[in-house]
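[Discussion] Sanity-checking designs against the backbone

I'm trying to build intuition for which residues belong where. Below is a structure token string of 407 positions. I'd appreciate it if someone posts a full sequence so I can compare it with mine line by line.
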């Protein structure tokens, strides 16, 4: 034990390796069909075409009378045109009579326009006298008619591959009668916490114990990336138990994320286990916090051993997992709320490692949060983090920093 990190690699090398692994193992993403009612927030895996014209027939878009526009030409308040009403067409019914010169049909919004008619006169501009209808305003052809196929034509694309299924998109799909859509299958991500000190969060606290927060923060982060988390529980720092847990977990998921036990100290047995049953690819990255990060492969699936410290675990997740998970889920990484603000106080960084420092935004300035990376509340308080390059030792008060949000 007490083994040092033999191959501390820099962030860009780690990214190259991880990127290649993701491509090799998880591309192209799998596709599944889901019911439209379960499709919200999913990513469409193929273009979807409309099986019908929309609207499926020429449809009245006002209540009134279906007429031949030319029968109404020159109609006015003083000089109404008189037409004879031959039918009432309700929404959902089918017109039976054709409109010939001098005739009209009463029609409701949403009902099919009868043959022969090419305009709708709004009921407001008419008056009924028995079956004679007085028309007080002239209509132009296609007035108040939604023409068949004018919304979308049969075989036109309603929604494109890669689209995020939003309420509007789901509305358009169902308007075309679609009930199932092909979407990108969510990656299933197993989450294991390791440590003799860990217990499930509850009302009961035991001396010497710590509530497992990583399982829950990571599960939420996994969901945020469009993947499906599976919390697999807490495992003791025991070689046999942990090995067994990892072996059975890996069968249940596409990617396994563990936290804790990645250092080179006594009780940190993860490396030996991965060595034993798979392959260690990265152990130790030149980053702060999160140096003792371990990335390995078991049975052609990736295992990410995040450091146990809650802040380190989430920062490593953000830096080395989130971009790739987002890409695979079809949710491209967009830092919408990147802000550039002056630093509120001088900040010391560690030379030789890229430093991710948490900041809180207050009074238009970025205030560094100086608690250690075990302090989960520092993360919960933070508005984001700034990235300090590895050759920078001190950032002066007032220097402009770019604040990246976590999620
Ligand atoms: P380790 O990486 O196992 O050396 O753990 C580093 C620190 O993180 C220790 O103080 C652990 O108690 C703490 N820690 C490890 N795992 C968790 C967890 N799942 N939830 C909260 N704290 C943890
Ligand atoms: Mg531990």
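Best answer:
Here's mine. Compare freely.
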């Amino acid at each position: 034990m007490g083994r040092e990190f033999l191959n501390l690699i820099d962030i860009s090398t780690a990214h190259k390796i991880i990127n290649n692994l993701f491509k090799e193992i998880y591309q192209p993403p799998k596709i599944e069909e889901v019911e439209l009612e379960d499709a919200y927030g999913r990513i469409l895996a193929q273009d979807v075409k409309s099986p019908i014209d929309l609207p499926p027939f020429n449809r009245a878009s006002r209540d009134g009378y279906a007429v031949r526009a030319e029968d109404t030409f020159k109609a006015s308040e003083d000089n109404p045109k008189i037409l004879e009403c031959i039918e009432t067409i309700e929404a959902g019914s089918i017109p039976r009579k054709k409109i010939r010169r001098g005739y009209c049909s009463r029609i409701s919004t949403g009902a099919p326009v009868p043959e022969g008619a090419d305009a709708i006169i709004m009921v407001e501009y008419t008056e009924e006298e028995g079956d004679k209808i007085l028309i007080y305003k002239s209509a132009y052809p296609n007035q108040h008619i939604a023409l068949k196929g004018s919304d979308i034509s049969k075989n036109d694309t309603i929604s494109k591959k890669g689209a995020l299924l939003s309420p509007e998109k789901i509305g358009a799909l169902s308007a075309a009668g679609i009930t199932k859509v092909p979407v990108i299958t969510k990656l299933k991500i197993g989450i294991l916490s390791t440590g003799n000190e860990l217990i499930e969060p509850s009302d009961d606290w035991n001396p010497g114990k710590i509530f497992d927060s990583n399982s829950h923060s990571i599960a939420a982060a996994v969901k945020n990336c469009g993947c499906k988390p599976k919390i697999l529980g807490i495992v003791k720092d025991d070689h046999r138990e942990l090995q067994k847990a990892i072996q059975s977990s890996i069968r249940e998921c596409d990617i396994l994320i563990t936290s804790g036990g990645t250092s080179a100290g006594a009780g940190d047995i993860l490396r030996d286990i991965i060595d034993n049953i798979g392959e260690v690819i990265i152990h130790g990255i030149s980053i702060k916090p999160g140096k003792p990060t371990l990335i390995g492969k078991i049975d052609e699936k990736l295992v990410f051993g995040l450091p146990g410290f809650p802040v380190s675990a989430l920062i490593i997740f953000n830096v080395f997992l989130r971009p790739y998970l987002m890409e695979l889920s079809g949710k491209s990484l967009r830092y919408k709320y990147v802000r550039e603000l002056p630093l509120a106080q001088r900040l010391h960084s560690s030379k030789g490692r890229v430093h991710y420092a948490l900041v809180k935004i207050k009074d238009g300035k970025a205030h560094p949060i100086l608690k250690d990376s075990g302090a989960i509340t520092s993360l919960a308080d933070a508005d984001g983090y700034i990235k300090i390059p590895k050759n920078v030792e001190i950032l002066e008060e007032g220097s402009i920093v770019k604040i990246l949000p976590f999620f």
